[in-house]
Amino acid sequence: MLSRSFFISGFTMEERFHYGGQAVIEGVMIRGQKAVVTVVRRPSGSLVVATQPLSTMYTGWMRKAPLIRGIIVLIEAMTIGIKALLYSANVSLEEEEEKVSGLLLWSMVIVALAIAVGLFFMAPLFLTKLLDPYINSSLVFHLI
């Protein structure tokens, strides 16, 4: 099997890292190789920069294992994103930073996912089951 290395701007593809992030309230969060940086604008106009190192769960060997890495990336994106949103909300409202416990944070995520699944999956399924005897057209059934 042949192996190729592509050179782009002096780096091989193995050496490149793709940075990612998301918008937060009055700011942005960027995830790097070893840390997460969140920059938020205060109501006074000044910028607040918060840097958080990533735990080994996000950078260790499990990150490279097939199947497991997809689950880890999903959990990582949710936890880092929610923490950054909570931080930006506190800074933009100039409130003292509340320490949200892990249990409270995960319970909020589980409730939000349950509402989303119920609203966008279960409700249409229940509605189509209810209306199935009254709908003769397959097209109308699938539009519901």
TrEMBL record:
Pfam families listed in its UniProt record: DUF1385
InterPro entries assigned to the protein according to its UniProt record, in alphabetical order: DUF1385 (IPR010787)
Keywords: Membrane, Transmembrane, Transmembrane helix
Transmembrane regions listed in the UniProt entry: 67-86, 106-127
Keyword Transmembrane helix assigned: yes
Stated name of the protein: DUF1385 domain-containing protein
Organism in which the protein naturally occurs: marine sediment metagenome
